[in-house]
Each structure stands twice: as structure tokens, then as C-alpha cells.
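User: I'm putting together notes for a lab meeting next week and I want to include a structural view of one of the chains we've been expressing. I don't have a solved structure, so I'd like a prediction I can at least talk through. The sequence is below, exactly as it appears in our construct file.
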Amino acid sequence: MAVTRPTGCVLGAVLALFLAAPPAFSYSPVGFPSAPHPGDEGGGKPKGGVSAGEVGPPTLSIGVDNGRTSAEKGDRLTYTVTLRNIGTTDARGLHLSQSLPDGLRFVSADHGGKARPGRVTWAVDLKAGRNATVHTTAEVQDTPAHLLRLATVACASAMRDGRPIVCATHSDRLPAGAAAEAEAARAATPPVNRLWYVGGGLLVLVLTGVLAARRARRRAGHHARLTRSP
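Assistant: Thanks for the context. Below is the predicted structure for the 230-residue chain, given as C-alpha cells.
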């Protein structure tokens, strides 16, 4: 039985039909199945997913102050911490904290603040455009001799990750800091100015001596005239 081999025309026709047929799947250049376009069945936002921007830290601002600029042992300091939600969405499950540095002993906190080693914490839910204000009272104890300022830091973070979203700080000058600032001011005084002060003092002393000498000569002359008179 003879076998008839396909001619070149037949092979060309088969190849043309294969190339003209649409592929059964599409692929992306990196080798993953291409995502369906919006409007296709199963397209758009994936089920259970979130769009970019829907999840992220809230827009907050924070401040801390005790109305003072200096402090010393025995002082009771009342701090006011104000947290503001300046965004357009509510912020739930916020973690608000204020540090208690060495030399500052916790006394009290309002709105359920809990004292922990080195800090005070609150749990806060804050609606958009609203503020939350809490207060802490602490007493100044012995501070290290090298400590110039007593500083506290207030931060707000999301409870799910603990990373600070926003922070603020306040510090009060301690006696050691006041002494250091005075010494720095003296050291910063230009030498020329100090020479003027010294020169001015010497000039005053010289003028005082000259005036005293003149008065002494006048008294001596007056006494001599009285002695010569009959």
C-alpha cells in the first residue's frame, strides 16, 4: 500500500488554520494569568479585598503642655494632652501614651489612664473632627545632676501595630539647666565687652581718686590760710 506524503501546499494550509484560531487563554509578560478587566465577570475589586487608601493611619494632631517652663524638686506638674482627629474618618482603637521620665513620680490620671513603668496609657476612640483631652499629675523628685531639662513625650498609635502616628513633647528647665544657661551666657559675652567693663571700672576709680586728691589739696590750702592770718 502506498503512503501519500502531504505536499507543501497542504502543510501551509494547516499552519494557516492553526495561527488563525484564537488562543484558549491569555498570559501576562511576567508569566502570571492576566487579571480580568473591570466590567468582566469576576472583574473589578476582588471579593473581600480593599482598595488602596481605604486602610491607613488616621490623620491626627497632638499636643502636651503643663503651662510651665521650669521645675524643681517638690513641684507638682499637671500635664494636658490633647489629641485631635483632623481627618474625615472616625479613628477607633487608638493607643494614647505619655512618658514619665526619671525624676517624675506619677500621682494621678483622669479618663481611665493607667500607670505603667515609665508611662501612662489610655484607650481612645475619636470621631472625625473631634478632640480628646486627658490630664496627668506628677511630682518632681530627685533628678540626675547632669539632667538639664525634664521632658515628657505624648504619642498616639494604632493598637494593631503600636507604631506612633503622631508625637509631641514638652520640657521644663531644671536648676542644673538654669545654671548651665547662665554659664553659657557668660561664656558667650564677647571679650571686647568684658574689657570695656574692666576699663570703665578702672576709669571710675581713677576719677574718684582725682576728685579726692583735689578735695584734700583744697582743705590743706584753706587750713594754711587760716594759720597765716593774724
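A couple of points you could mention at the meeting. The beta strands are 60-65, 76-85, 91-99, 104-109, 114-116, 119-126, 131-140, 149-158, 164-173. Residues 35 and 204 are 93 Å apart (CA to CA).

User: Perfect, that's what I needed.
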